[in-house]
Target: SusD family
Amino acid sequence: MKKINIKFLSLAISVIILSGCSDWLDLTPTDQVTDKIVWERESSVDLYVNGFYTYLHQYGQFGNQQFEGSLTESLTNTFKYGSYALGHKAGHPNNYVFNPEAVTTTSCFYSNWTDAYNKIRRMNEFLHSMELYSSFPESMNTRWEAQTRFFRAFIYFQLAKRFDGVILYTSLNEMQKDKARSSNEETWNLIEQDLNFAIENLPESWIPQEKGRVTKYAALAFKSRAMLYAERWQAAYDASNEVIESGLFSLTDNYADSWKGSNQESILEFKYSELGPNHTFDKDYVPLSDGYEFGGLGTPTQEMVESYEKADGTQMDWTPYYTENATRPPYEELEPRFKATVIFPGSTWKGNTMQNSVNGTYGTFMAYRAQPYTYGHTTTGYFLRKLMDETLIDIRGIPSTQTWVEIRYAEVLLNKAEAAFRLNKPDEAREAMNEVRERVNLPPKSSSGEQWFNDYRNERKVELAYEGHLFWDMRRWRLAHIEYNDYRCHGFRITGDNYEYIDVDYQDRKFSTRNYILPIPDAELANNSLIEQYDSWK
Model:
């Protein structure tokens, strides 16, 4: 991160559609321009700032920066990539989950060190050029700065949840010399300070032409998430409470609509279009019966299915289905979030009753390692439904355009519940979590202490399933080395009416405590004389 000389700022930005409404920001792509020219027109400055919004896509489930495009759920017991041949969304995630030593100082697919500092550099360049060249009113500068500092906090958060104190650059000049890493506390201080600046200076809403930009409440909602990671419980509690008390957001009536955007539950989102930007999520995960032979890359596990309660709030007894010659489990008895998240045997998908079986016409089973790649088959007996577009029929010809919702109201309620629990406010913790359960007509939980926290963990796992939270939650709770060690995932091999409970891994999954803190890359150590590797990686 030394001797960075930037002469041009690339503003080649595709049309992007942002936060929850039907209005599109009017964006015109701009080619490379010098930083001084940017400040000659308000529209050019807006375009520069709009480029930061693409970070929501890149670090979302439809982007590539969390785990090179693979879902981090594959590093938990909830998701299985069916390919053993190496590749992203294929054998690489399996290699990581079977072999913790795959994380090294030279390579880690869920490290983001280089990408994060490239983005931080760009945002600091913007703030630096504002000081030098802006002649706009201070109120306009402040709003641009508030958006930029929100995204700087967003990117530093991505670093903070992976590392233990990182290099903090808040100006362009700092990025042109060697610099030591700061402490964990100092890292979270900067994240909180940037978010506080955003909260204080962003509007509660924007005019229609500017809808889609980060608001005060989006910054508060994100702060409620970030401060849980920082274990700053009061800050997380206060931020989530302010969002809740605003009265501007609520849960959608139907859980299946909650992550689709443009509704009262969406607080911050990134939209797509056929012309671009768009994504390949459907191509990656559709069953072969959708007419695309390279989908089905990863599928939910039986462990995830068993996380769902029955519709009456009781636990289903799965032990009868672990025996030979078992029959079909009564999936219909499970609560609504299961049916909205998983394509299970007997469910309807795109007008067809899914079989998910050996030689099945609609959903075909393939044993793990039977072929190098999945080719649209399931290795667990299930397919992913959540986040998929059931209305997309031409998988080959039309790209995916479903919205990525970065923050939704249900998460804020759960963030408040966890913070309240840590602050010894059990009634408020139960109330916030039970509001989420009430949406799907589940009875309230009245547990307390450690049992409540276990209930909360499961509620968060189910409510936010496949939205990119679980792996990072288990890391911040320091539970991954306990629950994600020496275990295997399972599924069903379905042949006719016979359901055979099977091991879908063939070897134990593992998590090393060393990997709670990722190593500083060798390239950084070689180019920065003041940086020091973490003790656990020396």
Summary: The two ends are 20 Å apart (CA to CA). Residues 68-109+282-400+477-518 form one domain. The first helix runs from residue 35 to 38. The CA atoms of residues 294 and 375 lie 5 Å apart.
